[in-house]
Amino acid sequence: MIVLTHVNAPALSGRIFSTAIGRMRYPRIDCLAPTWDIVQGVKSGRITPEEYTARYRELMTARWPAVKQWLNGLQGDETLLCFCRPGTFCHRQLIAKMIARHRPDLALEIR
User: Quick one: pLDDT band at residue 23, thresholds 50, 70, 90?
Assistant: First the structure.
């Protein structure tokens, strides 16, 4: 199962990775990290979640060779972290949709 959650979530398991742009003690998957500009834009209200989504998708398209390689390497025992609190708009939801589309063989859970 691929679990997407926030950095302070209890009981992290499997291979743990960061998808955030900030520093964490876990290895970061750079190709999935959003830019500071879009993160700060949505947090400050300068851009809407819809604009964030469009810009994040553009990033994923530009980074597609690395993203595809990462998707193909998923084993199903990964936990992906970021700093956003549960229940808030976050790129975790966008990553989950991408995994579901390109790796429907893997179970997903967003916490």
Answer: confident
> What is the DSSP secondary-structure string of the chain?
-EEEEETT-SS--SEEEE-SSS--SSPB-GGGPPPHHHHHHHHHTSS-HHHHHHHHHHHHHHTHHHHHHHHHH--S-EEEEESPPTTS--HHHHHHHHHHHH-TTS-EEE-
Residue pair 9/111 in contact (Cβ under 8 Å)? The answer is yes
Q: What is the pLDDT of residues 53-96, one digit of tens each?
A: 999 999 999 999 999 999 999 999 999 999 988 888 999 999 99
Q: What angle do CA 101, 106, 110 make, to 5 degrees?
A: 80
pTM score of the predicted model: 0.93
